[in-house]
Design goal:
544 residues; 7-stranded mixed sheet
Length: 544
């Protein structure tokens, strides 16, 4: 059975393909269109479909639209209600719902040969849930979905038994933890539905002195849900103009909101643990990308295991919608990796370099070449294999650097054009992580924060955030042998089994996806070495 999943309505349009219950491909439209998040989450853009990523998914499997058994669309307009009835101020939301109702015809136009009758609407939060529970390593698990909004709610709590969903609780709008955090993001001068991770980073610089006031608006409820109503933010702290300087009040407000979010999530998770008795909690929805809150749930919720979908935001609902439909006939296989996007053969990469007329080398061991540059304090752009599905660079489209030099944090933020308070992440071999980091292990998708052992903080200062934590990525040498060799080569030269890993892009642009993107990024940013598959391109030679 071939099922194509589509996310299109709100933001982060994406496509995913399952064949006989196995994930074949998944990619976000932004990687093709080069528009961050694919589009803005406004009703006027709801008609835009992930046409390029959908076509690529079919090409990857050698299929045509007529070969599909179903197309799963991650929103069900039959469940939606007028915005004002849901307590939302969104006067054009009726456009969004109208576009959703017409999605089968739009998809048939975008994918010639598709029968519109094959399009199936999947409730938004069911799609989120199916992107987590049934494709996680745990066929029996609790599932928690938290985001801004779906058709008429903002939350789903349930359990999967043998990969079958039972819904135990939902939260109706206007209460929404996702919208609460989005509103704060906008108040602090960042781009809502995009920059919430910046608020999480800024929170580490503050103290939660406004938490008491915020709890009047945001808190867990006894029924397993929560209350999250609009906050009069300006009564607490004046808004920060976009691009303006942040001050301690802004950091304290971020810290207060972060604390209230964690408390509400913890209350929901404990209720879910008590109701299900499950040992494993799986999570999806944009709020599940809050790695600080995720770690608190791991420590305090009572669940032994916490697994978060790597593409937890709306992009992941393409995978979840397809999994929900496919699972009704096929046995679903666990998600094998986040590297589900485009990749190129060595011959194809060489052809790109020849066309670009870029001087390049083909060393005997590209991992050792990269390790040597890193040990000499060079910055390496690392392009290997298939691109990642989701917002994290996990060793396929990464910028790498030396963690032992504190100035490399500022240096990388300058290379990428990012705010100075943004942290960068450590990449470490899975078997070494426990020596250095305290937190949930393994952590292959960079979705938790870990305490850094006291005797290591001074040794790897570039990756230690102001609060003494690090958002780590553990590397399984069986899955990522080339990355493992690069880290081992770096350790032989420096004594440090950790490498800085951040996404290969510059501010405001999607992560690099194809070789042209990599060459353009290398040409515009002060990177010392571009590793493109087995090939090495050195800045000194390329721009001599």
């Amino acid at each position: 059975m071939h099922v194509l999943g589509i996310n299109a309505l709100f933001h982060d349009p994406a496509a995913a393909l399952l064949t006989d219950g196995r994930i074949v491909a998944a990619a976000e439209e932004e990687r093709f269109s080069r528009r961050k998040h694919g589009k803005r989450p406004v009703p006027f853009s709801a008609w835009e479909l992930p046409e390029q990523s959908a076509r690529w998914c079919l090409e990857q499997a050698g299929l045509t639209p007529s070969d599909l058994d179903a197309v799963a669309y991650s929103y069900d307009p039959a469940l939606a209600r007028p915005a004002d009835e849901m307590g939302l101020h969104d006067p054009w939301d009726h456009l969004r719902q109208q576009y959703a109702r017409q999605a089968p015809d739009f998809l048939a136009e975008a994918l010639p040969g598709l029968d519109p009758a094959k399009v199936r609407f999947v409730p938004h939060h069911v799609a989120h849930a199916a992107s987590a529970g049934p494709v996680s390593p745990y066929p029996d698990c609790a599932v928690l979905v938290l985001d801004g909004r779906g058709e008429c709610g903002s939350h789903l709590a349930g359990r999967y038994t043998n990969r079958e969903l039972t819904v135990l609780g939902t939260q109706r709008l206007p209460d929404s933890l996702g919208l609460f955090y989005e509103d704060l993001t906008q108040h602090l001068g960042f781009l809502r539905s995009s920059d919430e991770f910046k608020v999480m980073a800024l929170a580490s610089y503050g103290t939660p002195r406004f938490a008491g006031r915020l709890r009047e608006y945001v808190h867990a409820a006894d029924d397993g849900g929560f209350r999250a109503r609009p906050v009069p933010w300006a009564e607490l702290v004046p808004p920060r103009p976009a691009g303006g300087a942040w001050n301690q009040d802004h950091a304290d407000l971020a810290a207060s909101a972060q604390l209230c979010l964690e408390e509400a999530m913890l209350g929901i998770a404990r209720w879910l643990r008590e109701r299900t008795g499950e040992e494993a909690l799986t999570m999806a929805g944009g709020v599940a990308l809050n790695c600080v809150a995720n770690t608190r749930l791991w420590r305090e919720s009572g669940f032994r295991h916490v697994w978060v979908q790597p593409a937890a935001g709306d992009a992941g609902t393409a995978l979840g919608a397809a999994a929900h439909v496919a699972g009704q006939k096929d046995t679903l296989e666990p998600m094998p990796t986040a590297a589900l996007g485009r990749g190129w053969s060595d011959a194809e990469l060489r052809a790109w370099l020849e066309r670009a007329a870029v001087p390049y080398e083909e060393p005997s061991d590209i991992a050792e070449t990269a390790a040597q540059t890193l040990a000499a304090d060079g910055i390496v752009a690392w392009f290997q294999g298939r691109s990642e599905y989701g917002p994290r660079a996990l060793g396929h489209r990464s910028l790498l650097a030396h963690p032992g030099r504190a100035e490399n944090l500022e240096r990388l933020n300058a290379v990428k054009g990012r705010e100075e308070f943004r942290p960068v992440a450590p990449m470490v071999l899975a078997e070494r992580a426990g020596e250095i980091f305290d937190g949930p292990l393994p952590s292959p998708h960079m979705l938790f924060v870990h305490g850094v052992a006291a005797d290591w903080k001074a040794r790897i200062p570039a990756v230690v955030h102001v609060d003494g934590t690090a958002r780590i990525q553990t590397v399984d040498r069986a899955q990522e042998p080339l990355v493992a060799r690069m880290i081992e080569g770096f350790e032989r030269r420096t004594g440090l089994p950790v490498v800085v890993n951040t996404s290969l892009n510059t501010a405001g642009r999607p992560m690099v996806d194809d070789p042209r993107d990599a060459l353009e990024c290398f040409g515009s940013a002060p990177v010392d070495l571009l590793v493109l598959g087995p090939f090495a391109i050195r800045r000194g030679k390329a721009f001599a």
